[in-house]
Amino acid sequence: MLLLHLDMTKSVMRALYGKSTSLNLSSRKIKVVPTCISRLTNLKILLLNNNSISSLPAELLALQHSLTKLYLYSNRITAVPPDVIRGLQNLVVLNLNHNQIQRLPPEIKSLSRLRHLSVLDNKLEEVPVELGHLTSLTEINLTSNNLSWLPQQLYQCKELTKLHVARNKLTCLPEGIGALAKLQVLDVAGNKLSVFPVEFHLLALGELYYEGNRFVRCEPMASVRDAQVLTLKELAARFVLREDRYRSSRVHMMLPHYPTLTALLADGNCCALCLDPFLATWVECVRFISLKKDMKMRSSKTIPVRALLCSYKCLNTDGHSYYAVATR
Ligand SMILES: [Zn+2]
């Protein structure tokens, strides 16, 4: 049976050799990619989907200067060898859907021209931070994996228009999502999210899918808060952060000479209400954003978006729409 398929493959390639730039070897029960494929050095598009391949084949390296689209969905791939992925630097489309991949190697950063990455329905437990190097990416599909977190470096992919991470185990989205200014479609349905990250409502999304999460609900309740006592470190940090805002201040001029302190203060944030800075102590709040009114979307529903306030003093001020989050 295998011989029959190899014969067929060889004949297909004899016919194509030097002429065609695409080759369809889908649904041929292929377990091992025939070595003669390496002679097709003009090949741009290769379909190897719906076979029984177990690893990204090293034979692909011979096509590294020409291959731009590679379809390997519906195979039995468990491993993505670093040496092979590193060599496929001209890929624009990589489709690995419906396999059993647990891990993408950091060497994926070599695919600097990649625009579409799809690893739907695999067994990924994490994605490498090096994904942030793929700044040409416009679409990522990581639906139906076992991801419990996403790297913040993902937001370096500023050309991203579609991000699908539905049906994973995400408990939060990293902060800084505002960097994805071109994002049009976000699918986070079927995760364990409780809030959307800070400033989420500033994204100009066209489509948002978020059903099946664990979002906080708006059930106001009375609570008594003890007076807040800030640590000396927090008080000092707030003072320095505040002073640093003034170009003429001594703090602003001296800070560049203290790189450790500068690095520490880089985690500083500012109050959503009074805009005063803080470092490591804040009041965790949400604001319920109307998809229609605030985000110009069709849905009339509201979503909880994370917001940080500097103090209970701010929280207790009248006339704002921030709610402190209670855990039960
Ligand atoms: Zn404040």
From TrEMBL:
GO terms for cellular component: cytoplasm. The keyword Repeat applies. InterPro entries: Leu-rich_rpt, Leu-rich_rpt_typical-subtyp, LRR_dom_sf, LRR_domain-containing. Keywords: Leucine-rich repeat, Repeat. It comes from the Eukaryota. Transmembrane segments: none annotated. Signal peptide: none annotated. The keyword Repeat applies. This is Leucine rich repeat containing 69.
